Every structure is written in C-alpha cells, then in structure tokens.
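Title: Prediction job returns without error message
Component: structure pipeline
Severity: low
Priority: P3
Assignee: unassigned

Description:
Job completed but the reporter wants confirmation the result is attached to the right record. Sequence as submitted:
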Amino acid sequence: MWIRNIQLSLLSFVFGLFGVLVMDWSAVREDGFFQGYSVIVGIVICLQAAGGLIVSAVMKYADNILKGFAASFSIVLSSVVSYFVLKDFNPTWFFVMGAALVLIATSLYTLPPNTQQKLTQTILPVTTQNIEKDP
C-alpha cells in the first residue's frame, strides 16, 4: 500500500513541477519557490496534511461509511461556526434540510443494532399482509 502512495505522490509531484515550470518559472527564478508564503499559508498546509493523515487513520480503523459521515458532519459544523462566529454565511432552506438529514443519519448510524431494529420496525412496520406474494 505504501508503494502505491509513493507512486501517486511522485506522479503528482511531476505534474505540479511541470505546472510551475510552464506558468511561473520566471517568478520562481527571481524570488524563490516559497515567494508569497505567509504564516497563514503555512497553517493551511499543515491543516491539509493533518487532514490527510486523519482520513487515512479513519479508513484504517473505521470504514468508508463513517468517513462519509465525518466529512458531512464537518461541513455542517464548519458552516455553523461560520454563521455564528464569523457571521459570513447565510444558510438557505436547502442547506438547513440537508444539515438536518446529515445529523439524523449520523445519529441513526451510531445507534446500537437492537435500537436500530426496534426504531425501524416502529417507523416502517412490515408484515406479510403488506407484501404482495408472487403468483
């Protein structure tokens, strides 16, 4: 698995280096590769690297469904923080409905199996009378 990651990263490195050579070579030659980097840019790079490591840990110790829920929940959480703290996000009704569905789905997924089965039978009672039999 590590070999595949190294192969993919080397391929990305080649394409990125090609883009720098074609688009920004004169600026890199004059001011260096890290021109324009600030502390904020460094923090963003570190956060992206940490996010990649966290995703790999989730995939190793959990499953893909949990990763999807975590990504959805993080979008909802960052939007709530953006709305209340930064005051730069105005949610639409579609966003509110989608966020509610994400929270409900996450809650249902984390319930113990017996509770899930009881809840499902309560919401969707399935009996043999409701199911048509094939002739």
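Comment from assignee: result matches the submitted record. The chain has a mean pLDDT of 81.
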